[in-house]
Amino acid sequence: MHKGETMRVVVVGCEYTGVTTLINGIYEWGKDRGIDHHLDDHFTIPDAYHLSLEEQTAMLEMLPAIKERFQWFQIVYHVCLLHRFEHILMGGFHIEEMVYGPKYYYPGINIDVREYEPEMPDDTILVHLTANADAVRARMESDPHPHQLVPSADVTEILERFEAEIRHSWTKHKLKIDTSDLTPEILLDTFLEKSKPHLNKRDLLTRLG
Questions:
Q1: What top-level class would CATH report for the domain 2-198?
Q2: Residue ranges of the domains in the chain?
Q3: How much is the pTM?
Q4: pLDDT tens across 108-128, in order?
Q5: Please, which pLDDT band fits residue 129 given cuts at 50, 70 and 90?
Q6: Is the previous residue joined to 121 through a cis bond, with omega within 30 degrees of 0?
């Protein structure tokens, strides 16, 4: 019964708000129910979790215009994957690119990947993770990421930019979770509960079954 559920989820938010934590949690939750999600969480430059140190360095050293073109290719390709897989999880994706691209990867180059949103499946759920700035900075100190992208001084600005991009997103199904005081387990449970209104009848019955 659980294998009948469709789960297309794009999770976005400022670095250290729990994006990777949530999509990994959903992935494991799905495995326990016989659902094999396709998972892509490599839109932040460099992809520090799937590339070698040499490859990460090469990505960082790419010229800004090349980074911009590479990211466009990624977005277009993964829009296709949203249609190919019924069960797919993406971390960051196009909303992250709108925030991080012009700020950190290719300053001065204006982009608008939102034009691809109408091409995404109608049942795609856009999950916005946020947190207060103090919580984000505390996580930066306690569990630093390899190749941290967002400096502490930029946290408030980046949180506001994600808020604005989500507000202007054309995606039909959107939900927001403040992770400031949430453990990974509570974060997953919160998503599962908040996503219910965005499921069609078949998927809701599957989730409850």
A1: alpha beta
A2: 2-198
A3: 0.92
A4: 888 888 889 999 999 999 999
A5: very high
A6: no
